[in-house]
Amino acid sequence: MKRPTFLALGTATLLGLSAPMLPAVAALGVTAHVSTSTRTAGSTSSTSGYHEPVCQARSSLCADSYDNPADEYVGHDEPSVLFKSGVRGSGNDITYTMTLPREPKTRPTASGASGSTWNFQLRPTFWFGLTLCDTESAPEYTKTCTPDSDANNLVGTNPSAADYIGKHPGNAYMELQFYGPGYVPQFEGFGCTAHQYCAAMTIDSFVSNQNTGVANTSACDNYLLGGVEPINWAYITRSGRSQAPANPLFTGTFDNPDLSAVTPNAGKDLFMDPGDRIRIHMHDTTAGLRIDLSDLTSGQHGSMTASVANGFGHILYTPTSSTCQAAPYAFHPEYSTGNPRGNTWSAHTYNVAMSDEIGHFENCLAIDANFNCTKPGAQDASGLDEDDGNNFCVPGSDSTLVKINGCLSSDEDFDGQSYRNDWPGTLRDVARDQALHPSPVLFTSPVTTGGANYSKVAFETDLPRIEAADSQDSAPFCDRTTGANCVNPPRGAEFYPIFTTTRANGTCTWQEGGRFIPGTTRTFGGTSTSEYGPLLKTVYPVAGSTTTTRYNNFNSGDLANPCRAQ
Fold first, then answer.
1. Half-sphere exposure of 288 (CA within 13 A, CB side)
2. What is the distance between the alpha carbons of residues 265 and 556, in angstroms, rounded to a whole number?
3. Residue 185 pLDDT
4. Is the pLDDT score of 5 beyond 70?
5. Which of 69-78, 200-209, 338-347, 492-501 is least confident?
6. Are 392 and 15 within 8 A, CB to CB?
7. Which region ranges are annotated with the description Disordered (predicted)?
8. How many Å separate Cα 124 from the centre of its chain?
C-alpha cells in the first residue's frame, strides 16, 4: 500500500505525495497569486480528493467556531478547565507544571474489542491555551489591538455603546498542543515519534467580519493552513528558532504543498519522554508571546516565540481580492488578567485554559485503496458509521510502533474509545485499570507573576456545539437556541472524562479520567453531568451589527479554586 500524506490537522484529503516530493511555496510577505476560481473549499482536483482547509474539517484540532462557516466544521470535543484571576499579569505570564502520561505495558489490539488502550486512541492532543491579539481577525471592527490590556474585553450587547462586543479588537487563540508517541506521526496522523512526545505552538484566527457577515476572500481556502480559520504552526524547538516559517501561507496550497513546517524534526524539536515532568512558562516579550518548556526530568529545554523572526504572520482581511495575502505579525496576549472571556468567535468561552481534544479515533480492520474503512472495529460492530471516521483512515503499517489501522475524523455517534470506560480511573479494580489504561495527564493550576494562584476555576465542555444538526446525523439534535435535546453525557457514550484532583510532588494537581484513579482527593460529583454543570448561553456579534446567543457549552460557573499550586 502506497504511503499517503494526509493533512491530519483538518482536511480529509489524500495528496498521494511523499514529503520529499513536496516543493516549497512562497515565503511570508509575498502575495500568493491564487485566483478565486482556482479552487474553493470542498472542490476537487486531479491530484487530490475532497478539499477543506485544515481548521474547517472534522479531523481538525483547531478551536471550534460558534457557528458553522463551512461544511463539516464541527466535531472538536474539548472538555476543559478554565482558570480565572484578576491579578495583573495572569493573562500574559502563566506557569504550569505537567507530567506526561505513560502507556500501559501491553499494546492495543486491532479490533479494540479487548486489550489495552493507549493515549493516541483517547486523544490526538491535549493543550494549554491563551487568547492573543490579531488585528486581522474577527470581529473586524478595528485594526488596532493593544496587547496585555483588559480594555480589550468588550462584551456589551448594545451596538451604540462603547463596550459593544462587535467593537472588540481582533482576537486569535493559541494552543500549546502536545502530541503523543506510538502511532502514525504528523502530518499523516496526529503523533510524534515511536516513544516520545513533542509539542507545537498553534494560533487560530478567524478572518471574517462578524458585524457584516462577510467572509474573507475564498482564495485563502486553497491553502492547507488557510481558509476562514487560518493557523500559524511552529514546533517547540531546542534552539527557539522555528524549523520553518510559521505563517499559514508557507505550508502552501493543496496542489503545491510543503509540509516541512508541520512534520516533527528530530534534529530541531524538543522531544520528551512519557512520565517526564514539564515546566510550562507562557509569557509576553517585546518580540511576541514566548513559551518555554523545561523538562525537569531530562534537563532539556525548548522554546518558541510568536515573532516575525520565526515567520509568524496573519492572513489579511481582503474580502474582494482575487488573491490570498498575508503580512508578518508578532502575536501578543490580548489581556492583562485571566478574567476576560476569551474571544468573540469560538464556541468555547475560555481564555486561560487547559483542554483535551477527544473523539478522534476508531479501530478499523481493513482499509481500501482510497483509505476508507471497509471492515469496522469493535466500536462499529453493527456496521460502518458513514457519519464519522471511516473516510479518514491511516494504515497500521505507517505507525511508528503500534501497528493497527485507525480512523481519525471526529466521532459523531460517541462510540469510540474516548467515550468508553477506557480512561484511567474508569475501573474500580486498580490493578486491572492500570494494566489496561494509560496513566492520567497531571497538571497543576497555573501561577502568575510572583507565584500568585488563580482564584477561580470553571469546568466547560462544548458538547451542545457538536450535538447540533450540522455535526450529527442522528436526531434528536441539540437546539442551540433553546437548549432542547442538548445532553451531557452525549447519546451513545458509556463514559465521558472528568477532571479530578490528587496530590503529586508536594502540591495539589489536576488529573483527567474517571473517579477511581488512586489518590484522588476530589471528584466534583464523580460524573460529567455534575462536573460540567448546566447549559451556558453565550453572546456573539452577528451581521447587522447586532448580537445573537447560542447554547454552545455546559459550564459549571466560576468556582473557588480548590487545587492551588504550591
1. 23
2. 40
3. 93
4. no
5. 69-78
6. no
7. 94-115
8. 9
